[in-house]
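Re: that chain you flagged

S.,

Sorry for the slow reply, it's been a week of failed gels. I finally had a moment to sit down with the sequence you sent. For the record, here it is as I used it:
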Amino acid sequence: MQVSIEATGGLGRRMTVSVPAEQFERAFTERLKQLSRTARLAGFRPGRAPIKVVEAQYGGKLLDEVAQDLMRDSFYDALNREGLKAAGGPMIEPKALVRGQDMQYVAVFEVYPQVPRLDLKGVAVARPRCDISDADVERTIEVMRTQRRTFRPVDRAAAEGDRLTVDFVGTLEGEEFPGGRASGHTVILGAGNLLPDFEAGLKGAVAGAVIDIPVAFPADYGAPALAGKTARFHVTVSEVAEPVLPALDEAFAASLGVTEGGVEGLRREVRDNLAREAARRIRERTKGEVFRCLREVNPMDLPKVLVENEAVRLREAARSELGRQGVPTETLPADTTAFHARAAERVALGIILSELIRARDLKADAAQVRARVEEMAADYDDPARFVEWYYGDRERVAEAESLVLEDQAVEQLLVEAEVADKALRFEELT
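Prediction finished late last night. Pasting the structure tokens below so you have them in one place:
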């Protein structure tokens, strides 16, 4: 097999391959013999047709199949021989197939870039540090109480935090518009779920009030018919209710699954959960900082095909997420341009990490993977069941293995880098 390679600029390569006629003929003859053993042709018993008759019937198709197989196999053989690694599949331009002559084709492809640095020696890396305070614990408990609040009707003007039950009809230029009517709708002032004008118009309302509220819709509002326009809402307030938080007592702790230690037991569990969350956030932030530094010390050209493939994947993921949220997917751009910058960063990091893991011979042992899965499981009511479910899918386990390898790489890079710890409050960290 003869191979010649031409650089076409950057990472592009044009490889011309010539497969000897003898190898092509041998592969074709073997495939023809295999087919003749099973071929069903009119006038002959299965597998009994003369090979010349089989060739006359199927020769053209077999010729193409053999050529495709030889081009695929010889392409990767040529890559190995030349020490190249193709990024994505090649575009193959076959030349005319003639039996008795060498089979020739041209493969156009991109190669992976060289990674200049696989260390962070002398590079400054900021690593967050966080200690859980009593104030963090109490603040979290207050959030938990708020999440379990009830409401009682009041005979006063509505204030921040109150729940209002309303009926409303929205009109635009005097005409009711689709989706602008609701009955028995509940809103909580200050929750941020209403347009600012609507919420402002409800503040100070009392039960039984009838209000007309002009509401300006932002220019980028999801419904094009309303975007940038001002509608009027005719609102009837049927109830104003104030929040009532549950008492911070043993019964409240028990309602959260804390069966021993009462309120102090709840505080200990909250502190443990916050510490676990802080550790996870610190690890992810540190990893992000290390990845940023790795990318900074490794400027490189990237294979266009890999960037485009990743951009397509990101766009489809965004489309799926919008669909789950009920947001029209037409808001996404028609092409992948908007996703290219993020895709390029992901591709670059993937190349760098893959080479770093290979060069340092990092391995994800079973114990480390198990520990990572059990850490994920700690956030669930039934950790054992989560672990069993997680290990039931090889792809999920592979994800955990990748995370463990990334953690190992980060740990080794931090040993070499100039690390500066930065103290953060829990609120800042999250």
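What I noticed first: The chain has twelve helices and eleven strands.

Talk soon,
D.
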